[in-house]
Amino acid sequence: xxxxxxxxxxxxxxxxxxxxxxxxxxxxxxxxxxxxxxxxxxxxxxxxxxxxxxxxxxxxxxxxxxxxxxxxxxxxxxxxxxxxxxxxxxxxxxxxxxxxxxxxxxxxxxxx
Length: 112
Hints:
By secondary structure, the chain is an alpha+beta fold. It has helices spanning 8-17, 24-34, 43-56, 79-109, and strands at 22-23, 59-67, 70-77.
C-alpha cells in the first residue's frame, strides 16, 4: 500500500484503470479527461510510469491485440493497486474535510 501521498500522475493513471483495462493511447486520453485537460501524459512518461506501477504490483498487463496493424497492450489495476488507490482517496477525503472544517471556522471568526 501507499506509505506516502501519491504523485498526481500515478493517482490519475490508477483512477483511469479503476473501472476497466485500457491500452496506452486510451490511458492518455482518459487521464486528460479525468484531469479536465490539465494533465497530458506523453508517451514516454506513460510507459515509464506503467513500468514502475507494474514493478510495484499495482498494475499488470492484461492482454494484447492488433488493431489496424498496430499492436496494443492493455493494462489493468491489480487488487493491490485498487487498495492503494482506495487508501489515497480516503487520504484526500480526510484532507478535504479538514480544509472545509477550518474554512468554516475562519468564516465564523472573521469580523463583520
